[in-house]
Amino acid sequence: MRSLDEEVEKEELLIQEEAYLLSGVHIGTRQKSSDMKRFIYRVRDDGLYLLNVKETDRRIKLAALFLNRYPPERAMIISSRQYGQKPAKLFAQLIGANAILGRFTPGTFTNPDFNGYMEPDIVVLTDPLMDFQALKESVDVGIPVIGICDTNNDLKNLDLAIPANNKGRKSLALIYFLLTREVLRNRGQELELKEEDFEETFE
To answer: What's the whole-number mean pLDDT along residues 180-196?
Structure first.
């Protein structure tokens, strides 16, 4: 990932820092893993750990570059989290990838005899903790994994983590909006949708 790091090191933020804060991207949980300590800048009085959104921004850029190394139709976007399903689906559609929303059926990546068997080249997880079966199978067959990781996530087996609130509706909408926009920009394309178009509304 070093070469990708060099590409994004001196770039400006994708959006103003305030926009990240308004969407709650920085708000973590009351638990922190040893892996995520480096992305946490302080703890609130109520015990919630807060993430460094500048690092979130940098990691979104890295993830977009990483994804564009693979054919889009070979990417799989996964979300078992309810608030992540609409933004994950839209992200997949707009970049030309595939999506698995809701329950991940065991054997999807590891059992060639299974009717729904798939062989993606890269996987994006909305929450590695919730999407643990997809993570396990990706590791078993050697598929690179990008994960949106909250303060309580374990980074073991992830190739790239995007530190962010992976539970909030507005946070997930913003993360997937920015990731979509950045992937398309790197291809010389523009995204016509807005952040709110990615937000789950349950109408």
So the answer is: 95
